[in-house]
Amino acid sequence: MRRHDREEKFYSAIKLDGIDDRIDIGDPALLRITGALTISAWINKDAVQEDWARILAKGSYREDYDLELAENSTNRVCFYLGFGNSKTGVCSDNNSIVTENWYHIAGVRENNNMYIYLNGVLVRSKNNVLPAI
Questions:
Q1: Which of 49, 87, 89, 100 gives the lowest tally of CB atoms within 10 Å of its CB?
Q2: Phi, psi torsion values for 29, nearest 5 degrees
Q3: pTM, 2 dp
């Protein structure tokens, strides 16, 4: 969907069906981040999902980083980082996400700490859990 405002600035959004849609941009060097990291997205959960749903991800299960929407029974978002054979994460509280509402979520890695924000508010952190940058 594309639209523009009176100043001819273009805005766009992508609607995915939540089943099997994805956008694959390959493996550019620019996204092989090893230092401080912030990833964020606007989400609007419009249906009940039965399993984990990746919102934004780079890499495989135990490598790189991702934001995920947890299974329906918990209604929370999580930020994960993987390091070879291990993966660690930080999640919002249960029932912090409801259907038909817009949320801005952000996962942050700074030094050896992780943070997750919901609508600009820090909701959870983990300290001293990662290899230091």
A1: 100
A2: -60, -35
A3: 0.75
Distance CA 126, CA 114 (A): 5
Q: How many CB atoms lie within 10 A of CB 124?
A: 19
Confidence of residue 8 (pLDDT cuts 50, 70, 90): low
In angstroms, rounded to a whole number, what is the distance separating the alpha carbons of residues 90 and 79? 5
112: closest CA among 125, 129, 93, 91?
129
Distance CA 100, CA 22 (A): 21
Return the residue matching tokens 């409801």: 98
Q: What DSSP state is assigned to residue 126?
A: E
> What domains, with CATH codes, occur in the chain?
33-126 (2.60.120.200)
Local structure of 53: helix, strand or coil: strand
Confidence class for position 75, pLDDT limits 50, 70, 90: confident
CA distance 133 to 130: 8
Burial of 94 (0-12, 13-18, 19+ CB in 10 A): exposed
